[in-house]
Amino acid sequence: MRHVSVVFAGAAAALLMAACDRAPEIAGPQNNSISQPARDALHNTTNEMDLPWTAMDQDSCTGDVVAISGVSHFLLITTDDGSGGFHLSSRVNSTGTGLGAPSGFIYNAKDDFTYSSMSTIPGATIRQEEDVMILGPASVDNYIHHMIFKLTIDANGVPTASFDRSYTKCVG
User: CA Rg, the chain, in Å?
Assistant: First the structure.
């Protein structure tokens, strides 16, 4: 078995060395007079930022309306697949504290949201998921909400599959 591996490794090395001799042909004509951005710069872009987060959320476990403030961390990635398709992936993680009314309880809040879309030519897929947690003092239940959604669209623009599930629960 080891002999076969050595033969394959040698063949691969010979192929790579032959490919190096053809590198100028493979890369296309050398024309330095055309000024355009590098293809890699257009292919994949990542942006990241933190922004203030404020929200009003109903805690169905306690009946409180919770005024939340904190920070949201955004991560956005866009990709051009080179065939006319476009991909977007985003993630937002928000954390903060909130004051509940009418109870006056102080809550810790967390909201994690992911979204992705893949627009291929033709067709598309969209997916999003969210987890919201409002964590109260030890004397009350915590509010948890989970949602997941997915949609697939065919080449004619017709939705062919979808999935939508969500639940809410109170846990202590």
Answer: 26
Alpha-carbon distances of 21 from 7, 14, 26, 31, 32, rounded to whole Å: 22, 11, 10, 19, 21
Q: What CA–CA distance (Å, rounded) separates 12 from 3? A: 14
Provide DSSP, 55-70: EEEEETTTTEEEEEEE
Q: Look up residue 74 and give its two tokens.
A: 């955004």
Q: What global pTM score does this model have? A: 0.68
Longest dimension (CA), the chain: 77
Residue-wise pLDDT for 1-23, tens only, equals 333 333 333 333 333 333 444 44
For residues 68 and 57, the answer to whether their CB atoms sit within 8 Å is yes
